Amino acid sequence: MSERPEVSVVVVTWRDREHVLACLASLREHAGVPYEVIVVDDASGDGTPEAVREQFPEAIVAAKPYNEGLVAGRNIGVPLARGRFILMLDSDTEVKPGAIETMLAAFAREPKLGLVGPKLIGAQGELQPSCRRYPPFLAPVQRRGPYAKINDNPPSHQRHLMQDFDHAHERAVVWVSGAAQMWRAELAAILGPYDRWVSSYGGEDLDWCLRVWEAGYRVHYVPDAVVVHHWQAVTRQNLFGRKAWRAFRDWYYLQYKHRALRGSPVIADAVR
Length: 272
Hints:
Mean pLDDT: 91
């Protein structure tokens, strides 16, 4: 077996072949450190596994026979990883030069740092705010229905999305977007698998970050590392569809699950 890679990149994909290939191409060009890539195809049926094997023969491909969602895919990918760090990437992301090295450098500076998230930008270079404070309890209610017609950006939402933050310097945050999260590989044994009660549309990234804090580690936003994210608002395409209701359920499940962390001094500097 080859030398242990520094980073294991795990990409879970479903019917997104062209984005996956672009993601892997960006890694090949810009990774900058020894890495391996694990692609978990969630029964796409669009030729993704074959295309990845042909164009990126170095990749590990786990082709699932049936669709189970993002969380199940990540739980398949993580046990295959050999790296010292794990980088979870959505299939519609592309790493920019220096991004991976910059995230690794943050861990070297901070021994208790467990997880970092980079700055996310859109295809045209526009900022995608991707770091958050603790989630407000009433956010789903305020962001949908009659409340949203009165004010779709209430003060609690502004604070949660850190709209008062310039997104230009590194700092502790409660959570970062799951589109790109790098974490210490030993956390897999400490935290266990991703929570199967959480859907693909409502909070697996929030849950994982809160579990990192609860385990005694820290979460940081590292804007000097940049990742392009071709983001699609899945749940907001239909505000009252099945996916939106699943996200609503997940939100309150996580509020209950992590209720002891709300107001805890453990995350005091992340909510300042």
